[in-house]
What does this fold into?
Amino acid sequence: MDMDISCTCGKDCIESSAKVMKSLNIHYLPCKNCDTDDLEKFRPLNEQVELNDINDRWKSCPCGRRHLDHVMAHILMIMMEEKLRDGNSTLRQVGTPLLTIGCPLKGPPYLLKDSMVLLTDHINKKCSLRVYEEVPEVKGVLKGDMRVTVGVKDSESLPNTYQLMAGCDLRCDILETPSGQIYIYKNQGQIHLEFPKPLNPKITALYKTFNKYQNPSILDCTCGPGTLGIFALKAGARKVVFNDIWYPAAEMTAINLEVNGFPVNFLKQEPGLIAEGENFQVYCADIRDLKSFLDEKFDIGVIDPFPGVDFTELSHSVREMCHEVIIIQ
Ligand SMILES: C[S@@+](CC[C@H](N)C(=O)[O-])C[C@H]1O[C@@H](n2cnc3c(N)ncnc32)[C@H](O)[C@@H]1O
Ligand SMILES: [Zn+2]
Ligand SMILES: [Zn+2]
It folds into this structure.
């Protein structure tokens, strides 16, 4: 079966961000006509501007962009009208803007249409729909607490998800790696947040070990959306086996493989081997069970648990399958 990489929302979320990637260096920059006034995030908005003027003041510039602070102020106004925030609220109380494309920023970003997913813990359906319909930059609204990690923490935990209130929550991070850029898509209601840094420490850790071998084989035991294994393939790994206990993560890995130029055969939508390609396989399984269906020996095993989760115990079986294991802390 060929991999279908269209977005579940029915729109061209993957196609349209592919276009953005080509012009990433100018993507978030203002033009000479953009309104560049910053707002203070922790000071009540009503102390900084006349709220009645907002709609006139912060229309998008003819270039199609708007300062992130002005987008957040627009959302706050809707939240105030819906009585979900009071008149003294600050931009900080709106929620967290998850930009798509996500990349390290040098200054305040100027957003185009459909370029952020709003994550907020205090919103209802009506207000979410208004934000989605009235604020062009918002492509989706998620309800959830950003301090709660989305996904499956460990073998014993039930999954956490954020609730999609309106629109679509698929977004993309671009990571600079020693083997060029990689593109990591995530349905952010189901895949944990990770903010792109100029130098990804996990990739740096893997690369150090990777370079001790020639075209090593890699077992990415807790692959999430696939970042480390996809980097390894780009860096010339001879084989990568991806695995995650959380099906949405394993599925996202398969999509990200295809997006990054590694053609994927999608096999089935249930635990076990879910997808494969020329020199990789994607499994959805508990790390503790890997040994029962993988009988090969890998050069490097990578275990990247969520912060605070101790995988020392679980790593024993992986150690038997690999020459060397990196546990990313
Ligand atoms: C920090 S994330 C991995 C991120 C990934 N390496 C990346 O860079 O994109 C941790 C992952 O471990 C997975 N996980 C948790 N317990 C697991 C288990 N028992 N077996 C396999 N995967 C597990 C979670 O579902 C989550 O995707
Ligand atoms: Zn979508
Ligand atoms: Zn402009």
